[in-house]
Amino acid sequence: MEFESVQRFPPSEDKWDESSSDDETYGGGQYDDFEDLFSNETESVQNESDESEIGMYLETEPGTQKEVAQLIVLRRHLDSLQEQLSEKEFLVMKSREELAACRTRTKALEIELNEVLNEIKQSQESENVASYHRLVSQKVKLETEIESDKKLEIEINNNLQESELNLSRVEIEQRHYVELAEQVVAKEERVNQHKMKMAKYRLGKERKAAILEKRKWKNAERDLTDLIKAREFAHEKALEAAIENQKRARKFLKQSLSHVRDKEQTQVEDEVANIGGRVKSIISLKESINSNRENLKALQARDAAFKKQRETSELLERNQVLNEGGNPQQVLLRRKKKEEFEKNKVSFKTKQTTNRMKIVSTILKEEENIERRKKQQPQLWSTKHTEKLKELQPLKKPSIHTKIELTEDNEPIFLQQTKYLQQTPREDVQREVDSVSSSSGQDITQSPSTLALRKTTMVANNEEEDLAQPEFQGMWDQKHKVYKVPKEDVTLKPTGGTKMEHDIMKRTLAKHKDGIIVQQVAAGREFKGRPFNSKPEVIHFKDLDVGRVYKKKITITNVSYSINFCKLCGLSEHLKDFIKIDFEPPGQMSAGMSCDMFVTFKPMINEDLIGEVFFLAQTGPFSIPLKCTTKKCDLSVDVESINFGTQVVGETIRRSVVLQNKGALGSRFDFQKIPENPATTYTLETSLGRLTTAETPGMTPNDVSERLKTSTTIPLNTALKSRRTQQSEGLTDNPQTAETLGKMTEFPIQDDEEYEEQRGDYRDEGDEITFVTPATEYQAVPDELKVGEIMSGEIEPFSSVKLDIIFAPCIPGDIQANFQISFTDSESQPLLIKTKAVAIDVPVWLERQNVDLKVCMYDRLYQEQIVVHNRASTALRLNFEVPKELRNHMELLPKTGYIQAKQTFTAQLKFLPRQTLAEDSGGLFDIETGIVEAPMVIRVADQTRPVPFVINAVVTSSDLEFDRPSVDFGCCGIHESVVSTVKLTNHSILPQLFGFVGIPEYVDIQPNDGFGTILPLETIDIDIIINAKRARDYDFTLLCKSGINREFPLHCRAVGVHPPLELSHQVINFAATALDDVSTSTFHVINSHISSNEFTHPVPRIGKGEIAKVGPTSFEFMVPDNIPISITPSVGTVQPGEKCHITVEFSPKLHDYDVRKEAVRVIESMREEKEKEQEEKRIREAEELAKKQLEEEKQPKGKKTPKTPAKPKTGESAPKSGKSSAKSSEQASDAPLPTPEEIDDKSKAYKAAHAFLTRNYPGSFKTFIIPCLVASGSCSDDDLSLKYNTANTLYLEVHCPVIKPPVVIISNQGHSLTDFGQVSIGQNAIKPISIQNISENSVELKVSVLDTSGPFQMLNALRTLKPDETHTILVSFTPNMGKVFYEVLKIIGPSSELDVCLTGHGVTPVIKLVPDQRVLDLGHVITGETSSTAFMLENQSSLAIKYSIRLDSGSLLRHHNLQQLPDFISRSGDERKSLVGPQNHNGSTVFDCVPCEGNIGTGESHEINVTFQPDQPSTKFSDGARIILFNTEEAHVIELRGKAHDHMMFIEGNDQLDVPVESLTSDGGDKDTNGDAIVPMKNILLSFMSHVSDEGFSPAERKLDIGCVKSIAFAARKNGEWSVDNIQSAQNAGFSIEPLKSTVDADSTKPIQFTWTPPENHDPNVPVTTSVLLTLKGDVTLNYNVILSGLVSFN
What we know:
30% of the residues lie in helices and 32% in strands. It has 1691 residues and is of the alpha+beta class. Strands 34, 36, 38, 40, 41 and 46 form a six-stranded mixed sheet that branches. Helix 18 packs across helix 20.
């Protein structure tokens, strides 16, 4: 690559970092060495450089690879420097231009400022104030701009300096690489030279390869010829065999045809019989249907009669129960529930039976499987033999040290102390059990702790023995015996000693006994009893704590008659782990002497321990009892019964009970009262249906079953309180109420099935079911006796708690109650306390203790009567007291009165709540709830207890409040109504009536014309509608009155506006429009303002403002965004007295965000389905794996199947694949769902969501209000800026109902666009469009008419679609020109139109011939041999092309096209109609093209092979190959030519003498295969034309080509010879021939030059004719008489 200059380099894509301006970068000789600079970057370039850059250096020498890489790096660096230089120069130029522009602008502003200053002076002189202020503001603006421009100039100047600095840096940097650039140029030239050398080398190499390939091709051609001949011979043989086989097959054809006809006849008869049977069955079915219909009618009539009868009986029963005073609904409901219970019970029993059968069957199956597995795998189950093997073997004989002791019966005991070398935990436990069982103390075995320890030990042993055996015995379970070296000096003896040792031991012990145990006799009396006493007598460790150490000192005193001694023998076996005894034997002790023993106890378990300490005295053994007890509770009360005596109703008395704990363990207690008689208890063995009335008084068996089903739970305390209240009000006389209360029981709320399941699952036989006693026993639990403040708590060790029982009688009578103290300590029994009391009543009582005045309003009077009763026999004086806080609001009259004996007294209550009630009442009135509770008291003379009662009331306000004091409607047009919504709030808790009165005629109030009822604390919307009649100011007040005649005013004002324009329709109601459909409507904008005379007609104005001008008025509709409405035109101008046509289109669509949200749900459901499928797949794989393992286990062990390595690999890979799939599924499930904003609108989920929402669209109705701005003037005037007034705004209200489309497109993923793509001109493409009826009714469809001259055409008709039915429309596209076509097909339904957009692109197919030749000459061949060549078809169009090659010789118009004059007769220049020449005699085609048809993709090419195979000699073989595209269009015509000869030598170039007509027969010359034979002579004509000029005759020249055909038949002859004889006469006539004799190689030609130069004495009017002899020698000798004819032309 050459450079224009040293400092200019071609640009590159890399950027040079500007930060490289440090001193290190610009070092002087830093980059002088080429290798030092780029040695580190060579390897990276070899890996990262593009293929286009490395391609030119691929074949360089091995030693220069590094140099080439360095060259590439340097070239890149130089390119980057050049690019940086260009960039910096551009920045400098740009900064300079900006600086110049800034300075120019500043100068212009300064000039303008001077002009403004001059104008200011002039305005001051002329005292033009308005102009002065305008100029001053302009001056300030100019000064500001000049200042900002100066700042900008400074900034630009700084940028310019910085850019120049960077430019100079880059230039300096570039100068450093001048020498390197020259080196790069030199090295690139060297690389190019090397490349040329390599190219020459490769060219020679390719030529050699081409020669070798040519030789291979010729060999292959020869082999192919032999193969073809062999195939032809085989084909002839096959044809002969086929003809013979056909003759043989004809004999059997008739027989087979007769059999087929017979079979068809039988089938027809069977079908007739079958159809007859079907007809009979259909007739019988029809008859049965009719009979069944009659039976069904009878059954229905019977069911209706039964139903009517049942309803009548139910109605009679209901009336009967109602007349008896009962609740019929309850009775019937109870009966229905009972029937349902019985049904459920029966169904439960059947279900239980079936389940039981299933369980039994499964158990039997399991047993069968277990038995089968026992037979297959017996090693998994234990037998007696295996159990014996598992038992513990006897211990090895250890070294034994024997101790001998005596029992009370003087029997020896061998106490063995064995040293175990190796003991397992099981052996330790077994030894411990053995030692316990062989203990000498019989009392120890009787202690419970010993029994518990023994039981625990045995259970542990059993658990160890019953451990589950492993399926396979591993090496780790085998216990190997460790070899031990025996000790010679130790001889093992049997446990317990030998028989001889026992005898010796007995004798020795007898001697010891005689010497140790001595009878003690003193004063003639023998001592009997315990020789020693202990103090204390029992060693007792109380209240033990685990882990704490206790010590006790025990004094042992000799109480025998004389000297005695004592020896400690031990203690109970189970105490040895916890008790330690320190005792030093004192030796002989005199009578009365004592010694000390210390006992240390460290408890390790929290249990009671009982045992003994054993001693041996001279007079015999004795023991001291030892007890260890844990902490326990010792609870008691000081009294067990309390008598409260007699108490007046209303007074309260309290009694206390002291609960004491004398134990060391605390407990939690609960103090509660219990009924005196316990509840009746039943077990499941007792049927609920067999309960008698004595067991459940007042309860029947039906009631018990009914209560098990009822869902009502009423506590007993609630029932008691209700009864107490009724008694106090005098309602206890009603027996039905008491009976109802008595039947209230506590049963859980549950269904029948749940009850049955719980009863069957959680209750066993013998469990207790407790029912609460009926109401006849409820007096045992009175409310008057109750527990005090302390009902539960903790009682500490050695402490006491005081519990209170309170008696507060409410009803007179004898009362008894039982109280129980229960404890959490399981060993402490509950304590029972019995109480009794007597209550007497007061003489004065009220009929109502609580007087409810309901809801009251402020400042309104409410009255009520208070009735007082006197049960005493004397008259009493009453004083009524009102709380002083409520005396201004409440009054009782009279304040004092007398009530007679056994009479009543009535007082009058007056309640007038005022607004100051909250301030006066103190705590008696709740401001938030409005509740007043006034405690009133009646004082009775000579009675300590007053009679209290309460007056309750809810006080509320009666205010109605508007949310605002006034309403401003603003500007109201006379063509529309303006609505303002106010909120009316009811602050009362009572509903109130309201109504608006005195409403002006131009005002309307809705709803209900301003009248209605407002609920408590409700806020309702009131719409105030004003319809201004004319342009003026409106000011009025609306008056709202409540039901109590309170008035609430609302002030309103508005301004009437008459706009300059008006709309012909203020409201547009669209018909129901389907989704993705379009509805249109029209209206007009009218300008009726033609005069400003307000006295003749109303004029446009705002209130009483200025009248609008007469003239053109413009409008603009402000359509809100994101609504499916468009208005055309949205902007326009209307002249006075004219109107403008407006079109409104409504095209509803689904909201994009809703579709995206649904798409997220679709993705989530798809994930769930995928996870479910994966889970099912994993389960199936696991089941298959389990089956395989089971099959492997079932195989008998004796037969060892050969193990192939593939099976375990697949078995191992299956779990891995399952894990990988599980991990992938977990990752997919853990992946977060996309947000609606992330959903692509072209994804499948989006399309599925859109289709789902369309199909399930519920329909909607929306109203849109579109404002129309009005301005005076024409919007077409560019200079006029129109200003509008919002008061003149018009409003268009549009009502848009949207429905679900009845018909949708289901093909092409629901898209309405059908794209046919690119289709060749004249071709036909058909696409189906499927539609579906998604409505609930049948839809009759029509279709719009497509363009008759267009390319689209509908092929089938529409029909009526039933619900959910589909139909497919076939549309064809046939383009007639190359362009894009677009058309809309409308499918019209009864309520909507479905638009289907059709589009397609007509494309002209372009196919190219390679080589581009119209004539394809296949040369010369020997008759019977073949010649072939090829050409390419290349597709240069943008779509695939289907082609076919048709030969003219196979055309039906072939004979028609041959009807023409031959060439030698018609000398006109017209082209031949037919290209077909002679044909083969055997009927095969002379020329053949392979392949003859196919498809060529875009940019692809196909190779066509043309074969020439004649069977007769001719030089006129020709044919036409026509390339047809899509079977319709002819793209190219190729003329195929060829020549065939019988001999290898031929001549070309002579004049035509024969005719190219195939109907003519051949000359019929004999062919001689002998090479020396001479073929008869043929004549050849050569005509010469010489022209006459002033200089004389011009010579005429002709060439005659002599050729030699290369043939396999004449492989021995490599060339041919020819010679010209008898030339003397020709030379005399002026002819010259060169050469006269020569040879020609095979597959080549040589010319013979014939020249005619007329002699000088030649007569031009006389033609010259002569001849010469031409002899050709090849396979045969050919003689030709060459006739030379010369003519002279004067032209």
